[in-house]
Amino acid sequence: MKDGYNRSINYLRLSVTDRCNFRCRYCLPSKGVEWLKHSDILSYEELLRLIIVFNCEGITRVRLTGGEPLVRKGIVDFVAAISKLKVLDDLSLTTNGSLLAPMAEGLKAAGLSRVNISLDTANPSRFTQITSCGRLDDTLRGIESALAAGLTPVKLNVVLTEEFSNTDLAYFIDQVYNFPVNVRFIEYMPVGGQGGNGPSIAEIKDMLNAAGLGQLEPAAVDIGNGPAKNYRLPESKGAFGFITPVTDHFCVNCNRLRLTADGKLIPCLLSDRAVDVKTPLRAGASDEELAELFRQAVREKPERHCLCRTSGHSDFGHSMSQIGG
Ligand code: SAM
Ligand code: SF4
Fold it and tell me: Whose CA, among 3, 121, 141, 168, lies 20 to 30 Å from 157?
């Protein structure tokens, strides 16, 4: 389905939980966030029905997210149930990787195509500092398991915070040279968390160019209309991606809607607009009525967001973890 700005909406980021076992400084405030009640979270059966209805409206790609999607019980069976529908072209998942190692093979067997894993630093103590409680080793094991299970291309999401260092850059260069991973540097979005003042994407590009590794060359690694601009270094197995939601927003190509764990369709990550699907769904709405709610959310997609590097989004009413990033 096309929105009012002629963008085809075919991608749904589906948050299966608002809960998380980490508290990344830039995502989840340390205080003041209350978890949703279990009864407010859409059941897997409800989510499957919505996927079928939204697929008829043009959604062919789904990314499972959270909170941390792997903390929700039954997630592997849910992946299998989505795959069984055989309606999607692409089913992926974004995770902090901490619980992934023992689940990677099962997720692949259940039909998951690939994973994005958040990893902002390769330094154990800075990792724990950023995530509040995470252990670097768990996430590194998750990455290894994802590669071994074939959940590829594995993409590493690196939010550029003030903790980012030259040592981290050297680690990510090494990963890109030696493994088929796509390391994506993401600008920090000032939407309620802490962690600004990290390097800009332009500074990261300068650091890469100054490292004497050869010229970055544009590379096509994204499936669909991803926001990253991707580049390879000569002879590297993997690639770098640069995601600039703030300094060079990609709204003109936006192809996505988000569904929160409590059943709200969010037309734009950085807007407070939301279309409640859960209440009508639980009140017995027909497929056509649910489809109309989807169409309403598509119609409500704004042309672009208005976030800039120095000013945050003052009326952003959610943490990133509640929307799924
Ligand atoms: N827990 C999973 C994870 O961390 O990958 C999935 C949910 S998380 C909200 C999804 C993505 O949003 C992660 O890659 C995370 O780094 C990113 N994110 C969260 N807060 C952000 C912020 N303030 N600026 C930029 N990216 C952010
Ligand atoms: Fe949790 Fe992911 Fe947010 Fe970190 S970025 S607090 S892992 S939801």
Answer: 3
CA of 289 to the centre of ligand 1 (A): 32
pLDDT of residue 320: 83
Task: Report whether residue 95 contacts ligand 1, using a CB cutoff of 6 Å.
Answer: yes
Looking at residue 65, its pLDDT comes to 98
In a domain, 272, yes or no: yes
Instruction: Confirm whether 156 is domain-assigned.
Output: yes
pTM of the model: 0.95
Q: Is residue 112 part of a domain?
A: yes
**Weakest mean pLDDT among 39-53, 103-117, 198-212, 291-305:** 198-212
Counted domains in the chain = 1
Contact 103, 76 (CB under 8 A): yes
